[in-house]
Specification:
single chain; about 300 residues; alpha/beta; Metallo-beta-lactamase, Chain A; 7-stranded mixed sheet; 8 helices; globular
Length: about 300
């Protein structure tokens, strides 16, 4: 194991892939067992410095299945115990926090999140059942230390409040503590994880330029993808996600970076999920990878 290791626990957007109730063109391939597509669970990663302790970044509704699929996260030691030392949240969306409820069986861990995300959890009585979860508020820009001496920093990215809090007219370009990315650093190795953002700011690009690997929001290939596929009525931008392609897309915004670049949080409608598709070839020719569950990143 290297100085910093990451495992992609899940790589799909909310609803996973294929989505349970969807027969869009991409999901239809998965339901038919087409070998060009691989099922994916909802996005989250685990990171470690090689000391046997792991930190989860976000806790998706699929977390129990992700733990079972990841031997490094299996219980060890005595009758009860887990190598999961902490969870860090980049927001309080449903697909970022619901998995916390799968960690309620009396194994202690620390939850790191911004005050805004902690407040969203505090407003839901179900999370009061997390008696062994220590809560630590971290402000954007504040450095904190995770297991194994991993230095972590949360940083604000353009976006919006969680869907259940956003109201009728959400602000889409505002940088706030409700929606953050995370930078992880250990002994010169640097990883950045941004599963949701409406844009790339100059400060974000400067941060990415220092990184060895960037795991970045790949929700939709085009901004109007869900409208065109009749799977929704919102653009990607309205949902707080920038598209991959086009003038305002991430391929252009992050062109020229030397970091390894990996798309995560990929919506079930996104044709980059199809091996060999024109869209997959486009992102690969631009130097990007499309994350799969179980992908390991060793720095």
């Amino acid at each position: 194991m290297g100085r910093l290791t990451g495992i992609v626990l899940g790589s799909a957007a909310g609803g996973a892939f294929p989505q349970w109730n969807c027969r869009c063109p991409v999901c239809a391939l998965a339901w038919a067992g087409d070998s060009r597509v691989t099922p994916r669970t909802q996005t989250g990663i685990a990171v470690s410095a090689g000391d046997g302790q792991w930190t989860l970044i976000n806790a998706s509704p699929d977390l129990s299945a992700q733990i079972r699929a990841t031997p490094a996260l299996h219980p060890r030691g005595g009758l009860r115990g887990s190598p999961i030392d902490a969870v860090v949240l980049t927001g309080a969306e449903i697909d970022q926090i619901t998995g916390l409820l799968s960690l309620r069986e009396s194994s202690p861990f620390t939850l790191y999140a911004t005050p805004a995300s902690h407040a969203a959890l505090a407003g839901n009585a179900m999370f009061g059942a997390m008696g062994m979860m220590a809560r630590r508020a971290v402000n954007p820009g504040e450095r904190f230390i995770l297991a194994g001496g991993i230095e972590a920093t949360l940083f604000m990215v353009p976006g919006k409040l969680p869907l259940y809090l956003e109201g009728e007219a959400p602000e889409l370009d505002t940088e706030s503590a409700a929606n953050v990315g995370i930078e992880l650093h250990r002994e010169g190795a640097r990883m950045v994880f941004v599963p949701g953002t409406a844009a790339v700011t100059p400060a974000m690009r400067e941060r990415f330029a220092r990184a060895d690997v960037v795991l970045f929001d790949g929700t939709l290939f085009t901004d109007d993808e869900m409208i065109r596929t009749h799977t929704g009525h919102k653009t990607g931008r309205r949902m707080g996600h920038m598209q991959i392609d086009g003038e305002g897309g991430s391929l252009n915004a992050l062109a020229g970076l030397s970091a390894r670049r990996i798309f995560v949080h990929i919506n079930n409608t996104n044709p980059v999920l199809i091996d060999g598709s024109a869209e997959r070839r486009r992102v690969e020719n631009a130097g990007w990878q499309v994350a799969e569950d179980g992908m390991e990143i060793v720095l």
